[in-house]
Amino acid sequence: MDNTPLISFKKANIINGESIVIYGLDMDIYPGDFVYIVGKVGTGKTSIIRTMTAENPLKEGEGTVCGFSLNGIRPKEIPFLRRKTGVVFQDFQLLMDRSVEANLEFVLKATGWRDRDAMDKRILEVLQDVGMETKAHKMPHQLSGGEQQRIAIARSLLNRPSVIIADEPTGNLDNETADGILRLLTKINKEDGTAIVMVTHNRGIFEKYPGRVFVCKDETCNERLENEVIDLSLTI
By the 8 A CB rule, do 200 and 168 touch? Predict the structure, then answer.
């Protein structure tokens, strides 16, 4: 396996607005990794995600994502960085005025696809990957929360990203539906080798579906040591 990290931070200060929320972040995420970022609300978990996607600037320390340096990244480079990452949100962020197929087509066109046949083929492929191939012509409001999140995951797969970055993807779902989403992400990770970086409050998830765990607390974020017990209060 390639030993070059897909995502790397070295002594990076992570900001939210103008305030530093995490000091001196060291984090390397490799191809095929499944990584959880956990911690209380306000400890900087989502700020790390936003820094990875260049939504938040990196002003101190070093950071790279999929070959792009986050230090002084130019605005015109950011869309290319984001094409190499797939992002999944807690609230799905589907376009409610168009069908599932049109949602996916919108992303392909926005990222440079032009060939109609190639787009149709890729849309079918990602819908099959998430078990939603029969839902292409449905409107988002006709789908359950779990189905909408599966469509959001399909959307994240369109450009064959090296890593999926998921910010509380099960936060709005019941436990059974959340479990189905984790099974799907685990399948994508194991079968395709796609790295997963997932923010979650749900301790049950990272105990049932093991991966590397980074714990955010006291303005730091460090990897959990093997067999280290995480205080449940940290994940509320």
Answer: yes
Q: State how beta strands 7-16 and 60-65 pair.
A: antiparallel
Q: What is the pLDDT of residues 214-223, one digit of tens each?
A: 999 999 999 9
Cβ neighbours, 10 Å, residue 97? 10
Residue 80 phi/psi, 5-degree rounding, is -70, -40
Q: Which two tokens stand for residue 208?
A: 């049932």
- List the Cα angle 85/168/80 in 5-degree steps: 15
Cross-strand bridge partners of residue 69:
64
| Tens-place pLDDT, residues 149-163 | 999 999 999 999 999
Euclidean distance between CA atoms 52 and 50, whole angstroms: 5
pLDDT of residue 236: 43
Mean pLDDT of 105-124: 93
Give the amino acid at 111: T
Q: What is the spatial order of strands in the sheet that 68-69 belongs to?
A: 19-29, 7-16, 60-65, 68-69
d(CA 209, CA 221) in angstroms, rounded, equals 21
Gap between the Cα atoms of 65 and 82, Å rounded? 9
